[in-house]
Design a protein that fits this description.
This protein has 371 residues and is α+β, with helices and mostly antiparallel strands. It folds into 2 domains: 269 residues, TIM Barrel (Alpha-Beta Barrel); 80 residues, Immunoglobulins (Immunoglobulin-like), CATH 2.60.40. The protein contains 10 helices and 22 strands. Strands 1, 2, 7, 13, 14, 17, 18, 20, 21 and 22 form a 10-stranded mixed β-sheet that branches. A hairpin with a 2-residue loop joins β17 and β18. The longest helix is centred in the middle third of the chain and has 10 residues. The radius of gyration is 21 Å and the shape is globular.
Length: 371
């Protein structure tokens, strides 16, 4: 596997004066035109929609029709074996003497309106129901063309023929399939979704991160899961980082009910889908709850001195490390911190959060690993 390790200093090569900031989310379901319009109205610029049933890329938006998932599927599982070829449901029904009238006759209408000019997108899907883990392990494959799972109606009709819902193989094999189908080799990857909601042990998260460096990290803020008080996972994040593993943190919406909360602010040199996918791979982004009301002007680390600044004063900034809160800055816009050589192992990592009470925005910087 000729794949670089996860970036241990994500902002090292960011030109904060020239960089473009692009708003997206690695985990955002978009089941219909109204949800799509809402995301656009609320500022989505780079979409990697993560639908399931089936777990297939909602990409490109202009080519998705309302009956597509009932008619054909790009790949599938049968008798728990992966088949990497298209499944034509009408043909399968006819060949097996099933009532074809249970299926649509055509693709129907386009599912989504035309996106605005400059809108960017890439494939993604949410995969679950692995054969060696419980149902709560949910995984997104940002930038991957893999299709698993199945439309619920079709799965019910075809159960006796060896078809079933989910991704019924061990998670390691499934991860490899996701990674094999990335549309560019140096961008995108896998995210481990809502670890608190999923009750994932730290050891299991570490095992997944160790499987491949393109397993990028975990969701540290999941708005949909937060409605059940299980959407925030900073302690889990710090526990993983304290093992010495780099682990990027993602802020996501999951299912949209009204306001979009949970975004990635991607830091890219050019506004292209490929640049956005590379930003995810390299950790060149920070998380935001609202996507407005506060931003990072810069985050610098020179190997000894940490310095970051927000674009508003009066904020609460917390710099976290293995010791917990390494430093706290009240009613401030800047954070300065020096790590002595003898203290590098003690701290292990540095990651910054910033909260603005006036706007309700909270930002999550990616970790800088010290050893």
């Amino acid at each position: 596997m000729n794949t670089a390790e996860r970036n241990r200093n994500p902002y090292a090569n960011v030109d904060w004066q020239k960089v473009h900031r692009v708003q997206g989310s690695t985990h955002a379901h978009c089941q219909n035109a109204d949800i799509f319009k809402s995301y656009i109205e609320q500022g989505m610029e780079f979409a990697t929609f993560s639908n399931y049933y089936p777990s297939t890329p909602t990409w490109p938006i202009r080519e998705i029709y309302e009956n597509d998932s009932r008619l054909k599927q790009a790949s599938y599982f049968r008798n728990r074996k992966f088949v990497d070829e298209e499944l034509d449901f009408r043909k399968f029904f006819a060949e097996h003497g099933l009532d074809v009238s249970q299926l649509p006759t055509d693709r129907g209408e386009r599912k989504y309106p035309d996106p605005p000019e400059g809108f960017m997108e890439a494939p993604n899907a949410e995969h679950a129901w692995f054969s060696d883990y419980n149902v709560y392990l949910h995984i997104c494959s940002v930038g991957s063309m893999l299709t698993t799972n199945m439309d619920k109606k079709n799965a019910g009709l075809l159960k006796e023929y060896g078809f079933e819902l989910g991704c019924p193989i061990p998670w390691r094999e499934a991860f490899d399939l996701m990674l094999d189908k990335l549309i560019i080799p140096d961008g995108g990857g896998i995210t481990i979704n809502h670890p608190n909601w999923s009750h994932l042990p730290t050891k299991d998260i570490c095992d997944m991160l160790d499987h491949d460096p393109r397993v990028l990290g975990i969701e540290v803020f999941s708005n949909d899961a937060d409605e059940s008080y299980s959407g925030q996972a900073e302690p889990v994040w710090d526990a993983v980082l304290s093992t010495g593993r780099q682990c990027f943190g993602f802020c996501v919406q999951d299912h949209l009910h009204n306001q979009w909360k949970g975004r990635s602010i991607l830091l890219v040199d050019e506004r292209t889908p490929e640049a956005c996918l590379r930003a995810y791979r390299e950790g060149r982004f920070y998380g935001a709850v609202l996507g407005k009301g506060l931003s990072f002007d810069f985050i610098h680390w020179d190997g000894e001195n940490f310095h970051a600044r927000c674009d508003r004063g009066g904020c609460l900034l917390q710099l976290m490390s293995k010791v917990g809160v390494a430093e706290e800055y009240f009613k401030s816009s800047e954070a300065h911190f020096t790590v002595k050589p003898e203290d590098r192992a003690k701290h292990g990592f540095l990651r910054l959060t910033a909260f603005c009470e006036a706007t309700g925005e909270k930002l999550y910087a990616q970790p800088i690993m010290l050893d």
